[in-house]
Amino acid sequence: MDSPDTVVVGVRAVTPDEVVHVARSNAHVRLSVAAMAAMAESRARIEALAQEARPVYGVSTGFGALATRHIPPGLRAQLQRSLIRSHAAGSGPEVEREVVRALMLLRLSTLATGRTGARPEVARTYARMLSVGITPVVPEFGSLGCSGDLAPLAHVALAATGEGTVRDAAGELRPAADALAAAGIDPLVLAEKEGLALINGTDGMLGMLVLASADLRGLLRVADIAAAMSVEALLGTDRVFAPDLQALRPHPGQAVAAANMTRVLAGSGIVASHATPDCPIVQDAYSLRCAPQVAGAVRDTLAHAEQVASRELASAVDNPVVTLDGRVESNGNFHGAPVAYVLDFLAIAVADLASASERRTDRFLDKARNHGLPPFLADDPGVDSGHMIAQYTQAAIVAELKRLAVPASVDSIPSSAMQEDHVSMGWSAARKLRRALDGLTRVLAIEVLTAARALDLRAPLEPAQATAAVRDAIRDRIPGPGPDRHLAPEIEAVVELAADGSLVAAAERVAGPLG
């Protein structure tokens, strides 16, 4: 029986949770018996075609615009080796370990379907590399997101053949040949079709989409908590989040966000203190009142992206592909458009969610709009600046997020002598989404840090139990209001609490699981 730390890759699709588990938790990987059988069956078909006189793309021809050349049997091993060497042409900084592990698992998943024609030993090598923690060094730049993430996947394949550079389980840089030898893994010698099978996939952009989706789902809960704390500390009302009002506009994500905020604000003494007929505040600002509409739209966008990811996870992306009835057919399934579009869509949603958060923070700092709090929440305004520059930091990040929201998928630069004349740029869309999520985490952390300070300044009024729990989690790391301190380390401390789930856990201990 496999341990919980082992992911079994078979002819079925791997799940998003399995991708995250392998990418981030160093789970081991094993191939199922059914997968090995499926690969052996399709491999027999490729080997039969290799003996025929007629040219078959990827088996007995060159690649891309060079597909018109017929390659004789004696040069076919060199053909595959040359393909990997020439396509491992990336440049720039290393891609993160979790991204490389995700794309390796996803390429392995496609191999395991038996639709690529690769030998079982090719898949076994990838599974063993993942299990022992050998991670090929993959440069950031090189993929156009069409014909697959060619350069990133080629760097992985190069390492599997014993060339290039890897990081071992301890994170040390080593020549691939040395790391494979130390793990008892024989370098691959690629046969017909196998070079293409290892590089013709959307695995890099898909892996980053799966990881980003998991991160954003957690950050949406942080966003609801942050918005609730801001509504509370800015003397807003929770009446606008009532279920019957939300049901008048039945977007599912909006209902979830409103329900979260209502639960987090339950029992707030601060909210109750001004819930009277003589309260002069008639309506809250949009960034407060419409928080569920914005966060809800992000949730619904994320749900669409996750649906696209689930379809892609169930795909066997290669060209040519071995069909279920044994044909070997060229196709265009490697085009990254479906994944690229949702990656760009998520970057737009992330930028807007952060923009609303920054607006709420700014309200805290303006004496004309914060309903009785000191300017900039400063201890001694004029001597102290309080959170004035924390909002500057938010504004700088939000401006960057707006730049990152410019779609990559609307661009296309033809390549391969115009044979590959329309490309998706999905890899680029994925890279900028990762940067955007880091920015969103920081913007939300600053809002939570500011709102927690404002809650303290509302004393002796008591916050809700859930918002107080979040405030207390921050106070375990950071003192309460007082004269100005070095603010950057305090921001970073709350960024960590937002990223690792601590803020959500604090709220959920009181309010129960949030949606």
Question: Secondary-structure blueprint of this entry?
Answer:
Blueprint lengths: L5 E4 L6 H10 L2 E4 L1 H18 L25 H12 L3 E4 L2 H16 L7 H13 L2 E2 L2 E3 L8 H11 L4 E3 L5 E3 H7 L11 H6 L3 H31 L9 H5 L4 H14 L3 H5 L12 H4 L1 H23 L7 E2 L5 E2 L7 H29 L22 H17 L21 H32 L7 H11 L11 H13 L2 H10 L4
Parallel strand pairs: 1-2
Antiparallel strand pairs: 3-5, 4-6, 6-7, 8-9
Helix pairs in contact: 1-4, 1-9, 3-6, 4-5, 4-9, 9-11, 9-14, 9-15, 9-17, 11-14, 14-15, 15-16, 15-17, 16-17, 17-18, 17-19, 18-20
Arithmetic mean pLDDT = 94
Could you name the CATH class of the largest domain?
A: Mainly Alpha
Largest sheet: 3 strands, antiparallel
Strand order of the largest sheet: 4-6-7
Count of helical segments?
20
Number of domains: 2
Stretches where pLDDT is under 50 for at least 5 consecutive residues are none
SSE pattern: EHEHHEHHEEHEEHHHHHHHHEEHHHHHH
Give me the secondary-structure category.
mainly alpha
Whole-angstrom Rg: 27 Å
- CATH homologous superfamily caption of the largest domain: Fumarase/aspartase (Central domain)
Q: Report how far the terminal alpha carbons are from each other.
A: 34 Å
The count of DSSP E runs of length 2 or more, i.e. the number of strands, is 9
- The CATH architecture name of the largest domain reads Up-down Bundle
Beta-strand percentage? 5-15%
Helix percent reads 55-70%
What name does the CATH topology of the largest domain carry? Fumarase C, Chain A, domain 2
Shape label: elongated
